[in-house]
Known about the structure:
Number of strands: 0
Helix content: 55-70%
Structural class: mainly alpha
Shape: globular
Number of domains: 1
Amino acid sequence: xxxxxxxxxxxxxxxxxxxxxxxxxxxxxxxxxxxxxxxxxxxxxxxxxxxxxxxxxxxxxxxxxxxxxxxxxxxxxxxxxxxxxxxxxxxxxxxxxxxxxxxxxxxxxxxxxxxxxxxxxxxxxxxxxxxxxxxxxxxxxxxxxxxxxxxxxxxxxxxxxxxxxxxxxxxxxxxxxxxxxxxxxxxxxxxxxxxxxxxxxxxxxxxxxxxxxxxxxxxxxxxxxxxxxxxxxxxxxxxxxxxxxxxxxxxxxxxxxxxxxxxxxxxxxxxxxxxxxxxxxxxxxxxxxxxxxxxxxxxxxxxxxxxxxxxxxxxxxxxxxxxxxxxxxxxxxxxxxxxxxxxxxxxxxxxxxxxxxxxxxxxxxxxxxxxxxxxxxxxxxxxxxxxxxxxxxxxxxxxxxxxxx
Length: 405
């Protein structure tokens, strides 16, 4: 029964496997990585902007932003076909067995991982004030009316990307995870192209979606998610950490992270992830607004009004007091909310125990959890289809073609 009380605050977490490891990146080398973009994807996008019509560019953006539409090679021109062929190559070190184990780990814990993604991994990236400015500047998170639908879509797009990467056979040739990663890489190149044409302050923020921000985000999706699960008392073995991290290491390669900025294993990834966070963390208005929008979305899912304070308490618990303060998260002191928070954690641990000790429940989770999660994501994406193309992209497509003509 002691299993149900293994709840650890992030402030008290120690990483025993890291104590005898040293960071292989200096602070200066990480700062230099902020100047580096993704030349391969950037050159491809620059060529598209130079040669394609306004209608063609708009259709390309529609394709990149549609999570359920894929193009086959015979539908592409020669330039795009060459780009896709090169960008879709798995690294030589990709291990199919480790990837399979990582997919199984996600299938078993997909709902818990999705929750930690929303309440720890993403808010932790918003604590990095320079990187948060990129997300905020794209205009993809909210609109001027305060409507949360655009942000709902953004969250679901991120969730769909995570689901695709970790789905069964997602990273095989033509797999949905592989294709999603290439789409994300290309979309980020478009965003860099747009922002740099709109007086982006590279001296202050670094290049938009630079290599350090890329690495930090991928590590938040891997290392910070695992740390969040452990904070909730969910036991993750060393083998499971290695497998889950390997999937995200392959994904990092596919989205364009350079090899010299990729940690070799989970323990090194944890060191690098926290080093980037420690270097980049700081309060910012953009980070607070992004976190608040994320929090309001989670609150909108609560069935009872009094439980609307529950997501803030969970976020505060997972982030810890320092990071929570940076992004403006405060936990409720209401006795009913705290009781509900405690019961939520107990239920999570009960479900975890059942999955590991009642055979059919574990088998059901592995088989059906990703499918159920995909149905939920699809529902939200369908409800927010009117926010399909960000306003900045619509306006910038026109700007590109007008400047060229």
